[in-house]
Amino acid sequence: MITDSHAHLASHRFKPDEVADLVQRAADAGVSRIVTLATCLEDLGANLEIAGRFPSVHACIGIHPCDVHSAPDDAVERIAAHVADPRVCALGETGLDYYHPAPDGWEEEVFRERQRVFLRAHFELAVKCGLNVVIHTRDKSGAGSFEDALAIYKEYASRTRAVFHCFIGAWENAARVLEAGGLVSFGGVATFKNAAEVRETVARCPDGGFMLETDSPYLAPEPHRGQRNEPAYVRHVAERLAALRGKSLEEFAASTSATAAEFFHFR
Predict the structure, then answer these.
(1) HSE-CB for 129 with a 13 A CA cutoff
(2) Would you place residue 140 in the very low, low, confident or very high pLDDT band (cuts 50, 70, 90)?
(3) Would you say 6 is a known binding-site residue?
(4) Taking a C-beta distance cutoff of 8 angstroms, is the pair 250, 43 a contact?
(5) Is 64 part of any known ligand binding site?
(6) From the centroid of its chain, how far is CA 206?
(7) What is the pLDDT of residue 143?
(8) Which end of the chain is less crowded, N or C, counting CB atoms within 10 A of the terminal residue's CB?
(9) Peptide bond preceding 223: is omega within 30 degrees of 0, i.e. cis?
């Protein structure tokens, strides 16, 4: 019924032998599909293995912007070898992270430029293989990474689509993503007491313009805020946002899951 469009089941915060329990708890909570995302070449295999083991799980493969400094220059070319795998549903997560400082030995702008190079490489691959792209943006202040990522997306928007995941921005910025042909997705932050702006964005987004996610093991929603997140908790997000939009959980889950199915080309 509900789709968790963004989780990290191969995270070190989940023990390999508990993944089956995570998937079962999600199913018990009404979560029928989970997208697990790779962030580097090292965890690509683990995410593919999980997606192969559980029919409800699909894999998204990419290089996280915080990992581009340690990734080889041909990392996206190596990812390309897996795009025809039926377990793979999209590319990412990629994007731009201006929040975390550059690693030791890297100048800030050099590190950010490498992120932009990798983001464009993901889009180039997306255009070639027909998959869509999951984008991460984060800033210390302002919206520099969002502005840069949106500008890059617009270079490719006529040929592929992107979702700006864990969206916490104002409606005006979400509207710009939608106008470009993309999507946004909302997670646990939308349930936080101090997230009125995010809920305004949720309220104004049209049906078909957004998905739900956990970003687990991070950003657990209320009433689990501060705990380790997991896919089952996307139900709390769905219940809160369905009520916000004046819809039943079933209707809301069906709509957001249909949007996810279209974006990820679930097979």
Answers:
(1) 26
(2) confident
(3) yes
(4) no
(5) no
(6) 19
(7) 72
(8) C
(9) yes
Structure tokens at 193: 């007491």
Q: Is the pTM of this model over 0.85?
A: yes
Nearest to 216 by CA among 183, 258, 187: 187
Look at the chain and report how many structural domains it folds into: 1
pLDDT of 244: 98
In the chain, the amino acid numbered 81 is A
pLDDT tens digit sequence for 57-103: 999 999 999 999 999 999 999 999 999 999 999 999 999 999 999 99
Tell me how far apart the alpha carbons of residues 174 and 176 are, in angstroms, rounded to a whole number. Answer: 5
Residue 196 token pair: 């009125």
**250: which DSSP letter?**
H
Sign of CA dihedral 29, 30, 33, 35: negative
With a CB cutoff of 8 Å and minimum separation 6, the contacts of 10 are 36, 38, 43, 46, 47, 50
Q: Do 213 and 185 meet the contact criterion of CB atoms below 8 Å apart?
A: yes
- C-alpha radius of gyration, the chain, whole number: 17
Provide the Cα torsion 43, 45, 51, 57; round to 10°: 20
Both tokens of 229, joined, read: 């997140």
Q: Which of 1, 51, 81 is nearest to 255 (CA)?
A: 1
**8 in a labelled binding site:** yes
Locate 117 and state its tokens.
């190079």
Q: Give me the phi and psi of 5, to 5 degrees please.
A: -85, 0
> Which CATH number characterizes residue 209's domain?
3.20.20.140
Its domain, for residue 81, covers 2-264
